[in-house]
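Field reference: sequence -> structure
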Amino acid sequence: MASLSRPSLPSCLCSFLLLLLLQVSSSYAGQFRVIGPRQPIRALVGDEVELPCRISPGKNATGMEVGWYRPPFSRVVHLYRNGRDQDGEQAPEYRGRTELLKDAIGEGKVTLRIRNVRFSDEGGFTCFFRDHSYQEEAAIELKVEDPFYWVSPAVLVLLAVLPVLLLQITVGLVFLCLQYRLRGKLRAEIENLHRTFDPHFLRVPCWKITLFVIVPVLGPLVALIICYNWLHRRLAGQFLEELSKLSSLSYKQRIKREERETEATRGRGGLLRDHSPRGKEELESLGGGKTPPGRDRGKRPAVRHIYRWQRNWKHSHLLPHPFLLHCP
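Structure field:
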């Protein structure tokens, strides 16, 4: 009977462990864990992105403080406290761009929506739940990508060169088709030409063919040169004839004028014998004195010059251009 009243060692150890477990469970009855996505969330520039976050075990988080901030400077992205959003505590770059989805907050699940994603949003976000003095956090990674970032430079070069290559191939095919058709037509025309060609033409000497080609070209040119020389000589002869007439007329007028002066001088011969001053003055006033120097000497060279032109009028290269003879 004594042995049954004394407790055994294993029963005491089990009782101690049971009490310790009950104490630990009672002390951690109000605690929870925050769980976020393990993989990075990817978003495109300008799009919207959602960052989910929940507590485990799930319970109503309406009375808790829920928020997101960015380390290392704890910039507040969005804050929910006392049942409402605290927009005044947001960082300036996130104002008006965030929204807290509270549809499942009774189950401990919330989601942060960010609009108009920027490159500066790339990086880590921290989601936290605070119940009185107890707080748990979870890290979320956001990757922001350009819509065309996935395209490699080789693909871009290929996309730029491909239209040019297609255009060149198309033009080449069209050109080959046209060339093939024209070649067929040309071949048919050549065959028809050989059929209708006069075989006598092949026996004609080459010099006859050359003469037949050159004569129609050189004939008008030679005729034009002959007409030019004939017109040149004719106009030159007319010019010399008119010049000789004018020269002879001026020479006759000069002779007549000198004869009149000589007769006038002889008619006043009595004045030459008068040695009075009055007679000398009258003689000088009437011009009965000596002939001005150079008058007789200048007469014959001009005549010789005119005769020289008359003798050499056939030398057309010494004359001016015939079309310039009638110019004033």
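Note: Residues 33-145 form a domain with the Immunoglobulin-like fold (CATH 2.60.40.10).
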